[in-house]
Amino acid sequence: MIAACRRHPSTAGSEVFRRVRKRLGYTTNRISPATFRRERLGAVARREPATVRLGTPLSSAVTAMQEGATRSVLITDSEGRLVGILTEQDVVGRVLAANADVGAPVDRFMSPLRDALGLDAGLGEALEIMARGGYQGLPLVDADGWVAGHLDARDVLEYIAEAFPQEVLNLPPRPHQFMEQPEGA
Q1: Of 131, 93, 129, which is closest to residue 111 (Cα–Cα)?
Q2: Residue 155 in contact with residue 139, Cβ under 8 Å?
Q3: CA distance 92 to 48
Q4: b vs e for 59-81, b when ≥16 Cβ sit within 10 Å of the residue's Cβ?
Q5: Per-residue pLDDT at 103
Q6: Where exactly are the structural domains of the chain?
Q7: Residue 101 carries which DSSP code?
């Protein structure tokens, strides 16, 4: 935390200063931790989800993942409702490790849908689910189970960088590193 001194308003005219710590709530945009946790996923999620239907060949699902520059592809039923997800981890662990047939249906390799949230859910809830499940992303659905979007960990990082530009841009390349001598002028 960066500490700064500021004259306390109730001590006008005296030399008494109050120590103020720079916290999440004192950023350029004045976003409090509570506001951050309550931010709606519809405002944070930016990635268009890659989707394929049940029965799609595995090779087409992987191609959709690559073309969408995503880490997963959402699997829908014939009506377009979300039923599962195929992640990079699934491809490595279930497909490559087993030397599977890429013409096989994606259904054999996908993970069944465990967690999904609506666009009105809060970012805090999404982060808790992602941390608990070890997910790098989370499908977003509407009230009827139709795919509404996808929240990726990169979306969260971009949101933080935009919400706290000064704090992010002023970080050293390796925050844990300490220089032996100062650099620059």
Answers
A1: 93
A2: no
A3: 23
A4: ebbbbbbeebebbbbbbbeeeee
A5: 92
A6: 41-161
A7: -
pLDDT at 165: 76
Q: Is 147 helix (H, G, I), strand (E, B) or coil?
A: strand
Q: Sign of the CA dihedral 89, 125, 172, 168?
A: positive
Helical ranges in 39-122 per DSSP H: 41-44, 58-67, 88-90
Fold of 41-161: CBS-domain (3.10.580)
Question: Which pLDDT score, from 0 to 100, does residue 31 have?
Answer: 67
Q: Which residue, 131, 134, 136, 139, is CA-closest to 115?
A: 139
Look at residue 131 and give its three-state secondary structure.
helix
The CA distance from 27 to 29, in Å, is 5
Which among 61, 83, 81 is positioned nearest to 73, based on CA atoms? 61
Q: Using CB atoms within 10 A of its CB, is residue 118 exposed (0-12), middle (13-18) or buried (19+)?
A: middle
Q: Count each helix (H run) and each strand (E run) in the chain, helices first.
A: 7, 8
**Run of H or E residues at 49:** none
Mean pLDDT, consecutive 10-residue stretches, the chain (185 aa), reads: 37 37 42 81 84 95 89 92 92 86 92 90 94 91 89 88 74 69 65
pLDDT of residue 4: 36
